[in-house]
Amino acid sequence: MVNSEKQAILILAHQADDVLKTLIQQFDSTLFDIFIHFDRKFYTASLAQELQGLVRNTHLSIISTQSVTWAAPSVMRAELDLMNCAFHSGHYHYFHLLSGQDLAIKSADVIYDFFKSQDTQFFEIRAIDSPVAIDCVTYRYPLVESIGKKHNFFWVLQKAYLLCQKGLHIKNQQSFILENKLAYASQWASMTNEFVNALLLQKSELQTVYRQALVPDEIYKATFLVNNTQRFTYYNRNYRFISFMGNSPKMISTQQEVQELLQSENFFARKFAPENQLLKLVRQATIENEKIDGRRPYKKVCFHRNCQKSSII
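^ thats the sequence. predicted structure below, dont judge the formating
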């Protein structure tokens, strides 16, 4: 198989637990190459060597360029570095961006077969020009790399600074906001080679626009997409199951939940606990049974140009 037929799995990870190891093994296939950005705070050479030892059939690359903080620009930078690494490693028809806490809930063959005939972007865009997204870019959040999910001293300072900006009507990136629709979306997406190439050509500008933004990883890709629909079509579904509890994905914790996910139309799901019996169910369905039964059928989806809904045929 020539490299141009492959698809790339892009993973943002911060821990080398059984979930990440299972995800890697799910795509240990000649159909995919795997690229991982590991949070620099937790990266070691021995960890990279351990993960490399999990694969036999695929090419696995690991980079660690950013110390990543939740909701901060470092997440966006890590994504862009990961895309850049994969894009310059070969020609891939699709790039699937995943978390290290995701698992595939269909086999690698089924996922590959679905995307090999597609040429659109698979995003989950939740709002365009929403006040929340506009605030995330309009105002500066210079302390966000020191905050993450913690309500610490920097969080108090950031809140005070935000109130000062709003009170004094100090706004950021106004020309960009006036010239572009601002989209708020899921961070996770499946993107074509052409889209990733176009995005990377804007890498420097993107890092300037969003350098002090809040949750730019949920804004920058989708914003680029909705402002370039003459070049790129998209389907408003990313085929990823995530159920949130507050700001964090809810843990998938029962066999019934896993069975329902395996029967769903989604390709990926989050979030799984490591060293859990539920991992065994997923492995059996996506790796072990696949070796015995061969390829499985999937429901074919008809995509509409308006990118709003699908029908099962």
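The longest helix spans residues 277-293.
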